[in-house]
Amino acid sequence: MSAPKGPFHLVSVNTAPERAKRLIGRVAEALSDRYTIIHVDNCEKIDEVEDKVKRHNPDVLFSASMWSAEEAQQIHQIARSVRPDIKLHAIPQGLQVERGPDAIVEHLLEKVPVLLDS
Description:
The chain is about 50% helix and about 20% strand.
């Protein structure tokens, strides 16, 4: 059994920081045998992204499901402008509202390994 990959430092962009912390905590815990994921910060507004990516230099950034596709694209462009090799994932818009937090965790458990191994 090999050691978990990482650590991967992650910044989330979510208007509900406590929920972001809780959900990413669940994902990090579920994947802890394979990856070390550290949630270093959350941006509640798009205009916080540049500063927090500069400050933390994260490996990964997730944009939450409250952002439209255009907003997620803007968030990702800002993050890439600071760190070109950052791994990005946009949680599909409306997933939290339509299917709840467990659906977000399931979605991320499916997507995160693909993202981190890429």
